[in-house]
Amino acid sequence: MTKPNPEPPVAHRDDRRASPSLAARLRAILGAPGPGPARDGELHEPRLALHVEDLTVSYHGDPVLWDIDLDIPPGVMAAIVGPNGAGKSTLIKAVLGLVRPAAGHIRIHGRPYRAQRRRVGYVPQRSSVDWDFPTTVLDLVTMGLYGQLGWLRWPGRTERAKALEALDLVGLRDLAGRQISQLSGGQQQRAFLARALVQQADVYFLDEPMAGVDATTERAIVEILRRLRDAGKTVIVVHHDLQTVRTYFDWLLILNVRVIAQGPVAEVYTAEHLRRAYGGQIALLDPEALLGPAPSAGGVR
Amino acid sequence: MTPLDLLSDYTIQTVVLGAGLLGVASGVLGSFAVLRRQSLLGDALSHAALPGICLGFLVAGARELGSILLGALASGTAAALLMLLLTRKSRLKTDAGLGVVLSVFFALGTVLLTRIQGTGGAAQAGLDSFLFGQAAAILRGDLPVMGAITAVALALVILLWKELKLVCFDPLFAASLGLPVVVLEVLLTMMIALAVVVGLQMVGVVLMAAMIVAPAVAARQWSRRLEGMVLLAAAFGVVGGITGAVLSAAGSGLATGPLIVLSVSLIVLVSLLLAPERGLLWEMARHWRNRRQVRTAQVLATLHRLAEAHEDPAYPSEQGTIEAYYGGAMGRVLRRLESRGLVRAVSHPPETTLHWQLTAAGLAEAERGLDGPSRRGAD
């Protein structure tokens, strides 16, 4: 399952078409959709929840993600791990069209993100917003429905009911009317999760949902995510805590600018892969706890 | 002039209407600017309007509000786009970008203004009122222009309410839903430029930023939801605007802009002090209440320890002992405990001073207190 790819990509993609017309080459340069195997309207790798090919993203000329190829099947709970600056958040942002890739293509259930927005739920990092914004918990959760509502329509009774239902799932219904600035860190994270739950998606992306929350909240979040997976949804989580990877997840992607390894946790979670991703940093972590026998709490199906 | 005369005065009517429009536009759009942490954007946009005002005047050849405001809007928008470009394409930070654009445009405007004033002529009269604002310079014919601009801005806010709200709160999530975040941000910036344009004549380019920021900041203190904040900011803007404008136009001869800004600032001051939950006085009261609760619990615990040391639950502790321990008068704390039925005053002859004894309830409370902080809210 590992795909080490040490060499920079060479120009091989144009070889697929014998002699591309000027228009096709222009379209390729301008990034506009054109005829070809990966055209927007056509299915490409539809059996995968997430398919990423040749993805490169750079900020100010430095590659943050380099030549990423990855596949995640539907119905798994997948962790993305890697050291700081490995590009974990950037990968999610690229998938959701929030950063523009320099190269590569991405498909969700066979189609580009643009065409699959309704099937995707997103939980950004909790620290990415100002929690002193004047709004209530119910309001915040209702925001998850703004995309489905469309322009010029205001949320009404239906939306309110859906939001309350999601708050019920995360155990925050009693706080629906509370100002978001009065929430604890764990409650903020659960409110964010509820906002993604109302999206009723097939694939969920969560950016560090367990960062800085208490143990009770962490258990509650994992429980909800497992229920989503058991209902056939795909859950993809940027995770920072190697200790819990084997307990919580059944699929693993180890990232450090490139893909170090990917596949079922049991196969991918090895000392060799971790060392290649984290380098010397792994010595600072406790190897006994990280690499001993897998905890029995039953994350792997 | 009596207040009644004031209201029937034609000029004053015009001024009040103008100030009202200004208050609504700047309050509503300022709320979004403040929540996006772009308070200084209003400053840059208003200073950047000056060259446009002068160019509008030069093109029209006279002090004609329509072309002047169009010029102001055009140069304000140009400055905003330049700022966006600078911060996105170069590694300049937002504050530096704002500073650069603001000063360059204002310098350009000042050069043009002095050039126009140098040529003399009656037509340029009133142009310098755009610096610090002059309510009396507003003509009845200017009102429809100001009204139309305000109406357009308000209509956009109402139509795009949930989108603007989401873009201000969580632009990443907004983008993931497919909202055109950059377009909405540019639109919001242009609408703030519109609000600036509405206020230019009355407040002037130098102080217009305060009208964008102040009503919104004051309103944030009192409101829990964006709806409330925006409505309240509009109300504060109207009150402050009208107060300052009437004071100025009623004959004091003082520049209108500073007076408006001062009246709005008064509202801000009151809000920062008094607003429930967020106000400074509110904070202080909460702090003081907490201290009193802690002190009361401490004194109860001390009485309990003294009783334990004497192996007598009903041991009468002399008030002087408690006061020596805490280094100050404890009469009020003890009376408070007494009114809650936790202690009772007793005499302990031959001593003539006041002594205090734990009641049964006080003993139970003190023992509960030892297990952890009391769950009871108030004392």
Notable traits:
heterodimer, A: 301 residues, alpha/beta, 6-stranded mixed beta sheet, 13 helices, 9 strands, 34% helix, globular, disordered N terminus, disordered C terminus, B: 379 residues, Arc Repressor Mutant, subunit A, 3-stranded antiparallel beta sheet
Explain what you see.
- The complex is a heterodimer of chains A (301) and B (379).
- Chain A is globular and about 50 Å long.
- The two termini of chain A are 19 Å apart.
- Helix content of chain A is 34%, strand content 20%.
- Chain A has helices at 22-30, 88-95, 113-116, 137-142, 146-149, 157-169, 185-197, 215-230, 242-248, 265-268, 271-278, 281-284, 287-291, and strands at residues 50-59, 62-72, 77-81, 103-108, 120-123, 203-207, 234-238, 251-256, 258-264.
- In chain A, the strands form two sheets. A six-stranded mixed sheet of chain A has the order 5-6-7-3-8-9, with helices on both faces. A three-stranded antiparallel sheet of chain A has the order 2-1-4, covered by helices on one side.
- In chain A, helix 6 packs across helix 7 (185-197).
- Chain A has 301 residues and is an alpha/beta fold.
- Chain B folds into two domains: 3-262, ABC transporter involved in vitamin B12 uptake, BtuC, CATH 1.10.3470.10; 282-371, Winged helix-like DNA-binding domain superfamily/Winged helix DNA-binding domain (Arc Repressor Mutant, subunit A), CATH 1.10.10.10.
- Chain B contains 17 helices and three strands.
- Chain B has a three-stranded antiparallel sheet.
- In chain B, strand 2 and strand 3 form a beta hairpin.
- Residues 373-379 of chain B have low confidence and may be disordered.
- The interface between A and B is medium-sized, with 28 and 28 residues.
